[in-house]
Design a protein that fits this description.
heterodimer; A: alpha/beta; five-stranded parallel β-sheet; about 45% helix; B: alpha+beta; five-stranded antiparallel β-sheet; 22 strands; about 40% helix; about 25% strand; rod-shaped
């Protein structure tokens, strides 16, 4: 089972994602922004990051740039609120460009997220 | 003395031959004649002299003469003694008078003969000649005609007085010579003048030769010379004479006419080169008539001036969709100007969407015009392009809004889906947790409901009419929806200070304006920065309002400020033009600001842009505040 850093500003989304991951036996630490996540990364040790894109202070894309820019290859699953084909929304394709291992679109079901996490973990 | 010397043949016989001879001589003289002695007393006279000796007849012998001869004698003695020659006017007649001395062998003393001939007829003829000469002189002066005569052997010349006037000279100061005249001729015309002179010298008559002279005062005058050559008995030319005329004014008029014709040609060519159809229409009669059309007008309508002139303006009016022409006819009949969009018929039956401008050509301001200029442009393609791009802009805005809405809804569906699935799994084992799930599920559901309502409210508000709305909440809603479609490093600041103010707007258009302005601000900042949106109330003074072409007083101002690249003056001058864009292909249609501007002016407000290169741009939308007079103020949920 993995030690997961969950980065998500919406409490409801954060709670539901945490419940899914915990149901599969993972341990979760919450962060509410990219900045928060960076601090927690330097303090603790994580197997994988699950991150939202749209967040105040530092968003998911900026977080990815920081992590990959520092040479950290930790698996990252991005959970995106944008529809995959929605025009002019600032989303998933960009996340992949900046080094996300898997992108999952909200709303997703339990299996979808767990599969994505497993797939990302197997990448490393 | 000669006693008994009588002129009448009935008198006693003469005493000697000398006396008889004298009497015969006297009587045969063709003119009135008297003979006087040294004392001036009459010694003899002839019949013709009777009338000029007054009433006394034969009694005059031995007496001083009276009548006309008394005067003649007196005048002759005063003039020169015994001999004299003069003309004298007496009693409506002219006399040529000759006095001379004779020696009489009989008396041995000197006598004087006075002969007076009536020369009245000759004198009158002379006067007539003088009068006609005077008239000729006057005529040549009036015609500015100088006359000249040139003698070739000596090079001397005779000029009429006006000839001197023409050349700005006086007879006292001008010495005639070929060289002195040539110096008067304008340097550019001297060669031409030389040829005129050569022609004359070779015996040719001169017809209307023209050249310029430069007068002493610097004035340049055009002269026209006509000349005839005089030939001597051997057929050799020896002199020439002719007239000289000042034709400067005629030359100037000729030049003015040439310039006018040239101007006309240039104007017509320029009009034909114009990419805009131009017609000149006259409204003297009942039906407006085409006076002139340029090449583009012919090209657009497939007509020419004569076919348009025949058919009149109605030729351009299609059978259906011709209503737009009523406005044009109204403008013509009311001498006003105007611009109209209408359907224009071609001669071949086709039609096109036309932009027509009418402007009266007035001789004097305020006067009714009956000449108009009419500009015609085919804007069919512009219209189609504008419609297509408006549509694409609409789609772009829709995509942007739907993207924002989708993001919000997805984030709310996420806990609903995940927690209901997890809840079902643990319903039997952990009802406590399931209850917590339900709380989150229902709160997410409520939030989703609110967003759907918000979107529906927008849809419902999409009425064509303007109405008073709480402007702050409309702007707030638009920003909420917009937020998530902005790049994450673009921060949106809000300063909404006019919570309760109602503004007369169209709600859909508010979101469109906010979207367009904020997106422009974000795009200008290269990925990161702050767009500040504020809404407050201002009180415009007279001059401030006039600068914005608004009425003074209270206005709501929506201000969107970015710290982006800004615009230079050139770009700033063009930003409200539809389809003008500085953005990269695919990034913008160039309609954003022009749509925002047309919406704001449609509300009765305006959009004003201030910008500085590399500092950023401020867009201010002035929005009319709802007053008591505004139609029903509705509260919107």
């Amino acid at each position: 089972m993995a030690n997961i850093l969950l980065v998500e500003d919406s409490p409801e989304v954060s709670m539901s994602v945490r419940e899914i991951l915990e149901s599969a036996g993972h341990t979760i630490e919450d962060a509410v922004s990219g900045k928060d996540a960076l601090q927690r990364l330097s303090a603790g040790s994580f197997d994988i990051i699950v991150s939202d894109i749209w967040m105040p202070e530092m968003d998911g894309i900026a977080l990815l740039k920081e992590i990959r820019g520092a040479g950290n290859n930790i698996p990252v699953v991005v959970i995106s609120g944008g529809a995959p084909n929605a025009p002019l929304t600032y989303t998933a394709p960009l996340a992949a460009t900046f080094g996300a291992n898997v992108v999952v679109y909200k709303p997703f079901e339990k299996a979808e997220l767990l599969t994505a996490v497993a797939s990302a973990l197997s990448d490393s | 003395m000669i006693p008994n010397f009588e002129v009448d043949g009935s008198k006693p016989a003469p005493q000697d031959l000398a006396t008889l001879n004298a009497q015969i001589l006297l009587d045969s003289a063709p003119a009135a004649t008297i003979v006087v002695d040294h004392a001036g007393k009459v010694v003899g006279y002839n019949t013709l002299a009777n009338a000029l000796l007054g009433e006394r007849g034969a009694d005059v012998i031995g007496q001083h003469p009276t009548g006309a001869f008394g005067i003649f004698l007196e005048r002759a003695r005063r003039a020169g003694g015994m001999s004299a020659h003069f003309e004298h006017y007496f009693d409506h007649a002219w006399y040529a008078v000759v006095a001379f001395p004779v020696q009489s062998s009989g008396v041995g003393a000197s006598l004087q003969v006075i002969v007076a001939a009536d020369v009245t007829d000759a004198k009158n003829a002379e006067f007539a000649i003088r009068e006609s000469e005077g008239r000729l002189e006057e005529a040549t002066r009036i015609a500015r005609l100088g006359t000249y005569k040139l003698f070739w052997d000596t090079g001397s010349a005779q000029w009429s007085p006006h000839m001197y006037v023409l050349h700005g000279l006086t007879p006292d100061t001008h010495a005639h010579s070929a060289e002195s005249y040539r110096r008067l001729v304008h340097p550019e015309d001297r060669e031409a003048y030389d040829r005129i002179l050569e022609d004359q010298l070779s015996g040719k008559h001169i017809r209307a030769a023209e050249y310029r002279i430069v007068r002493k005062d610097g004035a340049v005058r055009w002269l026209r010379l006509d000349g005839r050559v005089l030939f001597d008995a051997e057929g050799e030319p020896y002199a020439s004479f002719g007239t000289c005329q000042d034709v400067t004014e005629g030359k100037q008029r000729e030049q003015e006419l040439k310039n006018l014709l040239r101007r006309n040609t240039i104007l017509y060519e320029a009009l034909d080169a114009s990419p805009i159809g131009v017609a000149v229409v006259t409204t003297d009669g009942d039906i407006p008539d085409f006076f002139y059309v340029n090449a583009e007008f012919e090209n657009l309508t497939r007509h020419n001036t004569s076919s348009l002139s025949e058919a009149g303006i109605h030729a351009l009016r299609p059978a259906d969709e011709g209503d737009g022409w009523d406005d044009v006819l109204d403008a013509l009949s009311s001498s006003s100007s105007g611009a109209f969009e209408l359907t224009c018929a071609r001669r071949n039956g086709d039609s096109f969407i036309a932009h027509v401008e009418v402007a009266p050509v007035r001789d004097h301001p305020g006067q009714v015009a009956n000449v108009f200029v009419l500009n015609l442009r085919d804007i069919t393609i512009d219209r189609q392009r504008a419609e297509a791009l408006l549509q694409s802009q609409k789609m772009e805005a829709l995509g942007q809004l739907s993207g924002g809405v989708a993001h919000e809804i997805n984030n709310l569906l996420q806990p609903i889906l995940a927690l209901s699935e997890l809840g079902a799994e643990i319903a039997d084992t952990n009802p406590e947790k399931v209850r917590k799930y339900f709380d989150v599920i229902s709160s997410s559901g409520r939030k989703a409901r609110d967003i759907v309502r918000q979107v529906l409210t927008f849809a419902r508000r999409d009425a064509p009419q303007l109405a008073p709305y709480p402007i702050a909440s409309l702007v707030g809603d638009a920003l909420d929806l917009l937020q998530s479609s902005l790049p994450p490093e673009i921060k949106l600041e809000r300063h909404i200070d006019v919570v309760d103010i109602q503004a007369v707007v169209n709600s859909t258009q508010v979101s469109q304006i906010v979207l367009n302005l904020v997106k422009n601000g974000a795009d200008s900042m290269d990925g990161s920065g702050t767009v500040s949106v504020s809404l407050d109330c201002v009180d415009l003074s007279e001059p401030a309002a006039a600068a914005l072409t608004l009425s003074p007083g209270q206005w709501v101002v929506l201000r969107v400020v970015d710290g982006g690249c800004g615009m230079d003056a050139y770009t700033l001058s063009r930003i409200f033009e539809p389809f003008y864009t500085t953005k990269l292909a695919g990034k913008g249609t160039g309609l954003g600001l022009s749509v925002a501007y047309s919406i704001a002016t449609g509300w009765g407000g305006t959009l004003s842009i201030e910008s500085e290169v590399d500092k950023g741009t401020s867009a201010m939308v002035y929005i009319p505040i709802a007053t008591r007079e505004s139609p029903s103020i509705r509260k919107l949920g």
